[in-house]
Design a protein that fits this description.
heterodimer; A: 647 residues; alpha+beta; Flavocytochrome C3, Chain A, domain 1; Methane Monooxygenase Hydroxylase, Chain G, domain 1; 5-stranded parallel β-sheet; 18 helices; B: 253 residues; Ubiquitin-like (UB roll); Fumarate Reductase Iron-sulfur Protein, Chain B, domain 2; 2 domains
Chain lengths: 647, 253
């Protein structure tokens, strides 16, 4: 596997524009001869599909939901970053670039991150033009807030529903193209494998989830924008259907998988309530702007609260440990996600946790309500407080909110070069599904930015460049009649048949739950050699059990949620092992990856720049063979590697 | 808690369908309605029976994928709450709960509790957009928009496209859905250029998909999980009348 990041020459601020100039163009009259498959209809996929169709390409877009408007980008609450510097507070493209590289704990690629910061301003323009109702000041200009560990106010937002509004923007652009016939939309279709012809990605095999029919789709190239793999943990803030199948299937066909162990645990989620919980609810990080996070100083006090014998409001000030303010005075409650999450876990492990399970800390608005009044807090966070009350039954205006970290985002993903092209030529990957911009930790309000950057402003250029390089003679030459499609279709069909015919006793969900627990325990917020080695063995054993004792009810020739989940869990089984291998290999702590063996005396992450300043890229070698590790060295020419300090 | 469930089961669009009764023990009051159904599915699978098909995805009340008519009310008894955000503490131990799919002719059942909502997508495809080709946008702050206007647009844009309004309406009208999108875009300066065209096209598609007209029953507003107000329909009617008049004198492009 050859890893050529194809980073353009020249100074950082000029790389993208000079690269765009050197790209091959496709004559507007010829674009209609090419077709592009886009899998996923979230911010990256929806924006890319719409933009490519606007340029004149024929696009087929696939999503597993019943409408492209439901992709999980919709659930992002807090906001989207952009280096507009509307607040005149010292923001700039370079600062956003710098913050993102630093926030990612120096494990991302400089050139990609710079481009992300550069196009961030265009995203806001684009979204406003589409009618995204961002929050405004009384003067009519766009409002901003400070978010997730940034010391400038660069976050644009639409109440607590920013992701929804941005997605509806992309969805409206996509819908227009569907209406015009330039995009053929395949709702309720799940990509089950990638088809390659002469080493290039030329199509997919999908399952029509309504009829059960397995279908072939050919194109001149394929874009995956299929989101992250947080559901490997079973419990996460992801939607129920989010899965790794498309990315993992591409990986098995030869696409390198980068940094799979880099997962983000979000600090402000609602604590787990019980055994049958299906997902974890995220409370927007914006709450940390006004809420103060604390846990009782005395574990005995915490025990009383857990037992329901003590009202947290009665805990005196000097018995509360505002631990983030104490440990990180300059960032306080806004310390980055990885740091805040780990701090909560440490306290709960030491017996300071609240909530009936002991897995929770307080996010308290008492002081903010006293300072700004209930009305002001209601205006800022009303919908979030309502959501909290709906889920927990508690009123956060009078009882402090309880929070605990939960899996939220995955920084790892399919390896891509500067063009967002994977190690398979003609296979492009955008949004959370790729690895490139967030390093080992993502900053708040950066996921929406990256999804839209990839979809609106990067893929439409780089996909065109690839098609231009292939030449007009190649356009549309591969059809579904090619033998490669028949082979892949057979493989997909026989896998479905196998899943249906095991005839065991355990449900797909029960396997998913057990897999998630192993990964959460050993490859979650704290990881160790011993734990990871054990996890790999446990996952292998569970995988064997899965393939011998799975029970899938219903039929394959129609809508069958059990079969859908079975296929996804089967891939999570193999993928979970890869996550653990990656975490085991990386003998340092950085960002969301915390190896207990590598920490400073005061418990902070200890990075090892000398040995691990690289992207780990895994090459599939076979179902029962260890994958091969490849390394893309990360070269920092514009940012000096430093120890991240938020003290 | 223990529950008796009466659930609509339908094998396929052509199958007639029927209610089936199930009993479920050990449901936690803290679990969500869909987690209760997960539990039922696990019980069915354990008995070797086919699990239930129902739509759901984000389970945080924003994607609009979940549906279900619970005891006759789309999204159940709690105000401004999607099915996925409905918790079992709102039900009584030993209660019988009836669960049906959305009932509306334009949204046919695919299987069990899953319906086909693609007509709603087609309404959007016909005009629910502001044309802004990627790359063509002007600087975002070039057009100041009064906060109040932005807020109105946001109130309308909060629609999650779940279709509860259609399911609740005795006419199976999609007016609230269409009105929300029309109001969102027509109220913004960016959306004015295509205002008349958008309104005419979306209403025409809505009618063509078999949704009937609004007779001011107001059930839609009552069940809307996002609190979309009936006023939006009034706004749609105004915009539609104005567009029709203009179209009479000079055809709207």
């Amino acid at each position: 596997m050859k890893l050529d990041a194809k980073i353009p020459d020249g100074p950082l601020p000029e790389k993208w524009s000079s690269h765009k100039f050197k790209m091959k163009l496709v004559n507007p009259a010829n674009r209609r001869k090419y077709s592009v498959i886009v899998v996923g209809s979230g911010l990256a996929g929806g924006a890319a599909a719409a933009s490519l169709a606007e340029q004149g390409y024929n696009v087929s877009c696939f999503c597993y939901q019943d409408s492209p408007r439901r992709a999980h980008s919709i659930a992002a609450q807090g906001g989207i970053n952009a280096a507009k510097n509307y607040q005149n507070d010292g923001d700039s493209i370079h600062r956003l670039f710098y913050d993102t590289v630093k926030g990612g704990d120096y494990r991302s690629r400089e050139a990609n991150v710079y481009r992300l910061a550069e196009v961030s301003t265009d995203i806001i323009d684009q979204c406003v033009a589409q009618g995204v109702p961002f929050a405004r000041e009384y003067g009519g200009l766009l409002a901003n807030r400070s978010f997730g560990g940034a010391q400038v106010s660069r976050t644009f937002y639409a109440r607590g529903q920013t992701g929804q509004q941005l997605l509806l923007g992309a969805y409206s652009a996509l819908s227009k193209q569907i209406g015009l016939g330039k995009v053929k939309m395949y709702n309720r279709h799940e990509m089950l494998d990638l088809v390659m012809v002469d080493g290039h990605a030329k199509g997919i095999v999908a399952r029509n989830m309504t009829t059960g029919e397995v279908t072939r789709h050919a194109a001149d190239c394929v874009v995956l924008a299929t989101g992250g793999y947080g559901n490997a943990f079973f419990l996460s803030t992801n939607a129920q259907g989010c899965n790794v199948t498309a990315a993992y299937r591409a990986h098995k066909r030869g696409a390198g998988f980068a940094n799979p162990c880099f997962t983000q645990i979000h600090p402000t989620c609602i604590p787990v309530h019980g055994e049958n919980q299906s997902k974890l609810a995220l409370m927007s990080e914006s709450l940390r702007n006004d809420g103060r996070i604390w846990a009782p100083k005395d574990p005995a006090t915490a025990a009383k609260i857990r037992a329901g014998e003590l009202d947290p409001n009665t805990v005196p000030e000097d018995e509360r440990d505002y631990y983030l303010e104490r440990k990180y005075p300059s960032f306080g409650n806004l310390a980055p996600r990885d740091i805040s999450s780990r701090a909560a876990k440490e306290l709960c492990d030491a017996g300071h946790g609240v909530a009936s399970t002991g897995l929770g800390v307080y996010l308290d608005f008492r002081d903010a309500i006293q300072r700004d009044g209930k009305k002001a807090i209601e205006e800022r966070y009303g919908n979030l407080f309502e959501m909290y009350q709906r889920i927990t039954g508690d009123d956060p205006y009078s009882t402090p909110m309880m929070i605990f970290p939960a899996v939220h985002y995955t920084m790892g993903g399919l390896w891509v070069d500067y063009n967002l092209e994977s190690t398979i030529p003609g296979l492009f990957v955008g949004g959370e599904a790729n690895f490139s911009d967030h390093g080992a930790n993502r900053l708040g309000a950066s996921a929406l930015m990256q999804g839209l950057a990839d979809g609106y402003f990067v893929l439409p250029y780089t996909v065109g460049n690839y098609l231009g390089e292939q030449g007009i003679a190649s356009a549309g030459t591969v059809t579904t009649e090619h033998s490669a499609f028949a082979e892949v279709e057979d493989a997909v069909e026989s896998r479905i048949e196998k899943l249906m015919s095991i005839g065991g006793t355990q449900s797909p969900r029960s396997f998913h739950k057990r897999l998630g627990k192993i990964i959460w325990d050993e490859c979650g917020m704290a990881r160790s050699r011993e734990g990871l080695e054990g996890a790999i063995q446990q996952i292998q054993a569970l995988r064997k059990e899965f393939w011998s004792d799975l029970r899938v009810t219903g039929d394959a020739d129609g809508l069958n949620p059990e079969l859908e989940r079975a296929g996804r869990v089967a891939d999570f089984m193999e993928f979970g092992e890869l996550m653990c291998r990656d975490a085991l290999m990386r003998e340092e702590s950085c960002g969301g990856h915390f190896r207990v063996e590598y920490q400073t005396d005061d418990g902070e992450a200890l990075r090892n720049d000398a040995d691990y300043t690289y992207v780990s890229v895994w090459e599939y070698q076979g179902d029962d063979t260890e994958p091969a590790l490849h390394k893309e060295p990360l070269i920092y020419e514009n940012v000096a590697l430093a120890t991240r300090s938020y003290k | 808690m223990k529950l008796n469930l009466r659930i609509w089961r339908q094998k396929s669009p052509l199958d007639k369908g029927r209610f089936e009764d199930y009993q479920l023990d050990d449901v936690s009051e803290d679990s969500s309605f869909l987690e209760m159904l997960d539990l039922l599915c696990e019980q069915l699978v354990a008995q070797g029976k086919e699990a239930l098909a129902f739509d759901h995805d984000c389970r945080e009340g924003i994607c609009g994928m979940c549906s279900l008519t619970i005891n006759g009310i789309p999204h159940g008894p709690e105000k401004e709450t999607t099915t996925c955000q409905l918790h079992m503490r709102h039900f009584k131990d030993g209660e019988t709960i009836t669960i049906e799919p959305w009932r509306a002719k334009p949204l046919p059942v695919i299987k069990d509790l899953v319906v086909d909502r693609s007509p709603l997508d087609r309404i959007i495809q016909s005009g629910g957009f502001i044309t802004a080709r990627t790359g063509s946008a002007v600087e975002a702050n070039a057009i100041p928009i009064a906060k109040q206007t932005g807020d109105t647009a946001m109130d309308a844009a909060a629609c999650i496209g779940c279709g509860a309004c259609v399911a609740a309406c005795p006419n199976a009208s999609a007016m609230l859905f269409t009105a929300a999108k029309v109001t969102h875009m027509n109220s913004l300066p960016q959306g004015k250029v295509e205002k008349d065209r958008r309104t005419l096209a979306m209403v025409s598609t809505m009618d063509g998909e078999g949704f009937c007209g609004c007779t001011n029953v107001g059930e839609c507003e009552a069940v809307c999980p996002k609190g979309i107000a009936l006023d939006m329909i009034a706004q749609l009617n105004r915009d539609y009348t104005s567009a029709q008049v203009k179209n009479f004198f000079e055809p709207v492009q």
